[in-house]
Amino acid sequence: MKTFFQELKNRRVYRVALGYAVAGSAVVQVAGTVLPIFHARDWVQQVFVVLIAFGFPLALVLAWCFEMEGGTIKRTCGDSRAVASSRRVWILGGVGLLVSAFALAGYWFWHPWKTSPEVVGPGGSPGPEKSIAVLPFENLSDDKQNAYFADGVQDEILTNLAQVADLKVISRTSVMQYKSGVARNLREIAQQLGVAHVVEGSVQRSGNRVHVNTQLIDAKTDMQLWAESYDRDLADVFAIENELAERIVSQLKSKLSPKEKAAIEQKPTADLVAHDLYIRAKALIATALYSTPQAESLFEAVRLLNQAIERDPAFALAYYQLAHAHDKLYFGGVDHTPARLAMADAAIQSLARLRPDSGEAHLAVAKHLYWGHHDYDRAREELSLAKKSLPNDPLPFVLTGYIDRRQGRWSESTKSLERAVELDPQNPAVLQQIAASYDLLRRYADEARAVDRAIALTPKDAALRASRAEIELEWHADPRPLISTIEAIISEDPGETKNIAEFWLRGSLYKRDFDAALRALAALPIDGCHQQTIPFPRAWCEGVVAQMRGDQAAARAAFTSARTEAAKLVAGQPSYAEAHCVLGMADAALGNKEDAIREGRHAVELLPVTKDAIIGPLLVQNLALVYAWTGEKDLSLEQLAIAARIPGYLSYGKLRLHPYWDSLRGDPRFEKIAASLAPK
Questions:
Q1: Does 10 share its domain with 37?
Q2: What's the distance, Cα to Cα, between the start and end of the chain in Å?
Q3: How far apart are CA 7 and CA 64, in angstroms?
Q4: For the packed helices 593-606 and 615-629, what is the interaxial angle rounded to 10 degrees?
Q5: What is the mean pLDDT of the segment spanning 88-108?
Q6: Nearest CA to 217 among 178, 255, 256?
Q7: Which of these three, 265, 300, 321, is where a domain ends?
Q8: Within a domain: residue 483?
Q9: Which of 247, 251, 120 is CA-nearest to residue 196?
Q10: Using an 8 Å Cβ cutoff, are 227 and 244 in contact?
Q11: The predicted structure's pLDDT at residue 552
Q12: Do the bridges between strand 131-134 and strand 138-139 make them parallel or antiparallel, or are there none, so unpaired?
């Protein structure tokens, strides 16, 4: 054996092995740099690696059998002194070649190079071959007012494709940020959205004619797989959209059921003006749905949709969006009246009459049952039916997650919301809802990670940045990150002050900086402040700040005004638990003990924890405040202990810092409850 290794050294096999390794490594590095420039598929670089590995044992055999001498190649294997060693080398080389051949064959079998079925999606997850994102279409019309028309063409194609269960189609909310008319890195966009294909297009409307260009792109290679151009009468635009959707389905070799085909071929309306009104309203509602409720946007959407329905009373999708807007106004507390609920119900009835078995009809009923009546079980049944017809719509999964959360099914809720993220990966609002679930569970580290994911999508969102800083306050009873974040936001853009005024007010109260609280109060919207979905009048916020500053006269005047508003709300909506809660707290602040306790208890009876695992615990927490402010310390601590034992918004930071709880400080029972919520 010693002779064998000496012979390897004499024949410079070691040197060849080292040189081959260095040269092979250099080739791989150069290939890794150059090949992407030419958009080469990933398998090309993989071939280089496999072939270099395959050639290594062959290079060793050649180094043994031949050597360079005087500029010529001389064979050495015939040397009788090395016959035994030669046999060993041939055996080792043969084994090496055999192993490499098997490795190459196995790699070829498991990683076919002719096709590329997956791309890397969000977080590194693969995007399936039958997955697609329809990017915003470019408006090439001279009249820029036709931008809504171009949006409508893209929206209808996306809507049609989203009804195909054999496809994964990314939601409109996630694709709309990739604006047309600018250079777009399609491979990068596909990776962000988790899809294998993207659709691009342009629309030009001129008089009564419309020109539509569309192309289907393989995101892995940036290669155009298919393209189509249409130049037709404007009245044919819906037929164009339907044809495009069916051609794309065919190109992706996806299954299209007869029911899905019929749904795609059904025109939304024959009135283009009505459709334009619908698209504009839909955009307004989407904004209000996924961010802080914008009352003005919702009311404007209702106006536009009513105009669309006046033009086409058979416009089913317009009724769907109209019901959505009415229910959102009701649920968000903007107009929590029976009249608003009745308007939503009327729109749903019209939709059910026109398209009784459609996914939109089931989804509209589900939202109405959930938002309007807290009927979670029936809403869940309707959502199951909606998912069958709308397999790529994230909203049924979002609502299922919300209902699960209201019923205390925390794990199931997170799964549904994560599924919504897959379909709507660039929508930070869904991630915020996942964070909200972790907040209720007091899993603050997980909450912080979810909010960080959302901030990565919208780093300039001031309210999102403030909410991330507020986690530290709730978790560690440290208001400094929130205050410094608010100061930074206001310094960067004073116009954002109104969007973070509630965060600023809360942070100032926690820190007991009452001068800052006054400045925050001045920036607060006219409609007041919110404790989740519990709407407190602006006068309530003024009373709290005045009381903390020691101005009892101003505080009493403000609380009296707040009580008047709350009483009016209760009179008009006697079953509205949140309104009774606010009335009870206002009475407690004014010293109306019996009235305060009665209203606080009634709020908990109307919406107990068993019926609503989000707002129910908050009503228990506020009942504890009512008891504390009316001198019923034992009852207060009893309710506070209940709130601390169940998931909810009661936190270590609140109990340690908020002036609300000052009357209980120093009581060992209170201190024990606060300590139970301290970070572990």
A1: yes
A2: 63
A3: 9
A4: 170
A5: 51
A6: 178
A7: 265
A8: no
A9: 120
A10: no
A11: 96
A12: unpaired
Residue 168: domain span: 119-265
- Provide the sign of the torsion angle of the four alpha carbons 566, 569, 570, 576, taken in this order: negative
Distance CA 142, CA 137 (A): 15
Structure tokens at 292: 């802080």
Q: Quick one: average pLDDT of 121-141?
A: 78
Q: Which residues of 105-140 are buried (b: 16+ CB within 10 A; e: fewer)?
A: eebeeeeeeeebeebebbeeeebbbbbbbbbbbbbb
Residue 227 has a CB neighbour count (10 Å cut-off) of 12
Q: In sequence order, what DSSP letters do the residues of 599-649 get, joined into one string?
A: HHHHHHHHS-TTT-TTHHHHHHHHHHHHHHHTT-HHHHHHHHHHHHHSSSS
Please count the structural domains in the chain: 4
Query: Please, which residues bridge with residue 228 across strands?
Result: 214
Helix, strand, or coil here: 108? Answer: helix
What is the distance between the alpha carbons of residues 171 and 169, in angstroms, rounded to a whole number?
6
Kindly state the DSSP code that residue 677 receives in the 8-state scheme: T
> What CATH number has the domain bearing residue 420?
1.25.40.10
Residues 61, 54: contact at Cβ < 8 Å?
Answer: no
3-state helix, strand, coil in the chain (%, to 5): 70, 10, 25
* 361/233 same-domain check: no
Residue carrying the six token digits 């006219």 = 526
Which residues does residue 212 pair with via DSSP β-bridges, in sequence order? 203, 230
Distance of CA 395 to the CA centre of its chain: 11
Cβ contact 76:65 at 8 Å: yes
Cβ atoms 578, 534 nearer than 8 A: yes
Tokens at 58, concatenated: 């062959």
Residues 145 and 225 in one domain: yes
Query: How far is Cα 171 from Cα 427, in angstroms, rounded to an integer?
Result: 9
For residues 290-314, one letter each, b for 16 or more C-beta atoms within 10 angstroms of the residue's C-beta and e for the rest, the string is bbebbbebbebbbebbebbbebbee
Q: What's the pTM?
A: 0.74
Question: In whole angstroms, how far apart are CA 541 and each of 345, 479, 557, 589?
Answer: 34, 19, 12, 12
| Tens digit of each residue's pLDDT (9 = 90 or more) over 231-254 | 999 989 999 999 999 999 999 999
Query: Ramachandran region of residue 287, left (φ > 0), alpha (ψ -120 to 50) or beta?
Result: alpha
CB neighbourhood size of 63 (10 A): 21
Q: Which two tokens stand for residue 352?
A: 């059910």
Q: With beta carbons less than 8 A apart as the criterion, state whether 467 and 506 touch.
A: no
Residues 6+ apart with CB under 8 A from 509: 517, 544, 545, 548, 658, 659
Q: What is the CA radius of gyration of the chain?
A: 33
Lowest mean pLDDT among 328-332, 452-456, 626-630: 328-332
Q: Could you tell me the two tokens for 490? A: 């206001």
Rounded CA-CA distance 417/419 in Å is 5
Report the distance separating Cα 531 and Cα 602, nearest Å. 18
